[in-house]
User: Fold these one by one.
Assistant:
Number 1:
Amino acid sequence: MNKLIVILILLLIIIISGCANQNKPETTTSQQTTIPTVSGIQELALNEQDLQQLGMTSAMSFNGNDCQTEEQTSFSSSPVQYSICNYTINSLNDTWVVIELKKFTNREDLNDTYLYESSHLYSIQGIISENDYGDQSLFRVNNVNDYMGYLNEPGVYYYHLWICKNLYLIHITSSGRSKDAKEYIPKIGLQILSKFG
């Protein structure tokens, strides 16, 4: 009789502990990593206050909108949130700015895309700075030694700034005849980074 009671108590403990473990939330790797303060790429887009502060204007080109958002796939076929926005710099005639924002589902895809986009087709001669805006950032201007760089129209400058932050890739590009765009592009990058809190 005592053995039966002990066996029943042990079975009851096993059943109760099994139920308790089922109700316990599982710890996943995504819960262990730092959760970004921005949840999607829409929160990173420049708003009217940002544009006024930066001296920029929307260049509505996507069916009346300055931005277009869609889903793409990464190198590993994982989903990527993607947004592209067009602007002009008010004080610089004929200078256009394109901002591309991407949110990845994993760091490997982010790193692969950053390395490919920021170095593929570009020479080292155009690099202005590296890692000034985080551990993975690159600021550059077009150079004749870039792939097909000799085809660039003389006197037109293409500035590029790539910034990685959490699972986001920010790519800001300008096109125009003013070298002064070099001063605006980092300000735009810093404005976007400020949205992370």
Note: The chain has a mean pLDDT of 83.
Number 2:
Amino acid sequence: MEKKTVRNCFGQTINCCCASCRYRDIDADGVRICLKDCEMEEGGTCCPEWKLNDGLRWAGCGRGRIKRREYLMYVQAVRLEEYQDIMKGYIEEDQMKPVEAIRREFEEFFGSIYEIFKLITLT
């Protein structure tokens, strides 16, 4: 059986399946479920209710940015310290820093949270 594919408005080929469907959700156990109550189709097949999900609709638009590894490690370190403080009873969960505050703090000390790529053209 041949897999059905579509192209989004940016020319990206998308496989039509539950994973790419707007109506797909994940339950508390990590199992894929259908919000339209469709039967889960065999791998690679597509149900009649299939619609492209919003994330894949924008795939390939070129406006994506990659966060710096240093920023991600910084956020992880801040959160780890906060969770340790919660376990020790020093702070409550609602006293954790909002991610926006962590981002501002990082940018103040280290600059942008995003990777900057320079394109090199060969002549």
Note: Strands lie at 5-7, 13-15, 24-26, 32-34.
